[in-house]
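Hey all, sorry for the wall of text incoming. These are the two entities for the joint prediction.
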Amino acid sequence: MTKLQKAAAGVFLLLALLSLLGARGDSASAQNREAIAVSPSAKFPLGTDDLGRDRLARLIEGTRVSILLAPAAALLSTLLAAAIGGIAGYRGGRIDRIVVTVADLFLSLPWLLLLLAVRALLPLNTSPMASVLLTFLLLGCLGWANPGRLVRAAARTAANSDYVLHARACGVSGWRLFWRMLVPNLFPILLAQFWIAVPVYVLSEANLGLLGLGVSEPLASLGSLLRELANYDALSQNPVVFAPVAVLVILAGCLHLLVSREKALSC
Amino acid sequence: MLTRLPAILALTLTLFVDALLAADGGTLRFCLRADPKTFDPLLVEDEPSGVIRYLTGGYLIRRNRLTQELEGELATRWQIAEQGRRIDFQLRPNLKFSDGTPFSCDDVAFTIKRMMDPSLHSTVADSFRTVPGQVDVACSGAGSVTIRFPAPVSALADQFDQVAIQSAHSPQKLAAVMGPFLLHEYKPGSYVSLEANPYYWKTDSKGHRMPYLHSIRLDIQQNRDLEVIRFRRGELDLVEHLDGEAYERLAAEMPRAVVDAGPSLDWEIIVFNQVAKAPLPAYKLHWFRSTAFRRAISEAINREDLCRIVFRGHAQPASGPVSASNHFWHNAALKPDPHSPAEALQRLEKDGFHRTGGNLVDREGNRVEFSLITNAGSKTHERMLSLIQQDLAQIGIHVNAVPLDYSSILERFSRSFNYEGALMSITNVDLDPNGQKDVWLSSADVHQWNPNQKSPETEWEARVDKLIVAQTETLDRGKRKVYFDEVQQIVVDQAPMIFLVNPNSLGAFSLNLKNVSPAALRPQLYWNADRLYFSGALVAAAQN
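and here's what came out:
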């Protein structure tokens, strides 16, 4: 592990710890109505938003929600991709054709409608946390198709490779061949897909928030905080609104560096 | 002679500019939020189609958006008779449609008959259709026309503000119009282009033919933020219905371009579901049907904060169902509920509620928690809900904010009744209380909190029904005002709808656009489109 990678791991852990330990209770949702959209100060290090809520507290709460749930959703979609894509690539034939067709179908269908329907079907008194959990669960379940196709292609190549042929010739077959020969070789792809999916899911949650699905008030998430960037003028007038972007970039950067390390190890 | 030269030059220039004014006052550019669904003025239901109708239609009578008075247009005078069953118009002579076809009484008869034809399903006709029966239109040689309805029509003259006259004889049929502009080009999803009507009847005090503008380009633009950005870049000449945030941003940059025309007719309200068959727990239905509960919610909400924080000061706390900008019908005796959590709690305690560990619980020990649905994507509503959540938390009530897509909300309101409460915007375009008639009649399907009642379920709804019917049956404006004042008082006392705020009419327009007279009524900035022109266009025309 290089110094840079150690630093990345440190920063990631620090962010995770800060988000897990900081801003408990209702500090992120409390409205200070006499301090609407104030500039950073000792009391409010990142100022307040349009409802007088402490931006720092909301950033911490938002990072906590996103840092826990986006990787969980990414893990779910990567596991599904590994299972479905790996088996399709390994077994080939009819299973492969079915999986490719289903993956294409998943990629072409407008899942937004499903997400809207799910929100409409949820009980109205569903808590914001339950709603956000369901959102990330759906994102995880629906996000397997793209990585699944990549995994399937890699598994297909691996299944026809010399070392697999050699293993078959030596009498290794079935699940043993899959787990011992194929999966370890698919691991770098799966890991890369996992880390790529994390920021994608954070942003997806932000977009879904616009449609009423996802994190609802007063809960904060990185996605919901990013929605402030839609305010064209606020960007130039109040650079603090970039704070969630900075956190997202730092998170994604750290994850990227750690992926590189994992790739290096797996090679 | 030399001393008189500047005066002579000024006079010459004035005459020259006046002549140019009629020739080319420029192209006005603004946005429609969506494609118009129809160009048939009798079938208009959506706002974009309404804009086209407003700019292209010729009307017998039209309401001046500034003075709020009715003014003769294609008719020079009118008179209502037979207790509102008959209206006589004297038509303006020698007028022509945009294709040169002469305007006559036949066109009025054709329009009214077509409008009242049940097979057309014209929503414009609904205001005139009180009972089934034949509508008679009779013409006389002297340019007068008499329209007789089978039953009295309340505020009969006001209803003609929506009726654009169509040609009975023009080969262009619907394309022939009598308004200041006519449809030139429509590219779906892109723009609608209107051009000046060469046969528009109106002239200014100096005899110049109007409209001054050469054309109007209506870009179809759904995104409000982009609309504001385009206005700032100078790509648009006016924007209407700005929210407080956009208004403040524009005001900081272009203080002379923005205009706050005061409270609009629109409401922001909360309504609770009181439908007996709604799939709600019985105890919740009991809360929502309790006047004390609804009044307590109203008192616990800080309207001043809603105006100050969400609308940036560009809204007024609502006192009732008629905004103060509706000069005649507003009941000035009504005041907005003051923010008073203590009084709200007292009222709830009298109704059997009490606080336990920071939560409000009812007589049976059920924690008071409900959801408020609202349209997803509305920053204004999301912010309002956040403030309301915190206000009600002060008296121990937990509110879940549920943004939903429009179709889901509509389905819940009209079919499943699967909602507890809703935060809604109500757009009001009609000054006359008849425009709200169906909201208050218990038998109506837009009697939002408990629609389609076979007979009024409460005494106060029965009283409101009687008052609404009574005000439709009299032509005496004073009596109607007395009846409707009582309706306003009852709905404020009973709070079936909790009136929160009346947002102000906010807009912005290019400084080069002249003759703009901002009004609180819609359309706010271009209601006198035939008089608008660009000073820059005149200079350019003069140079050419």
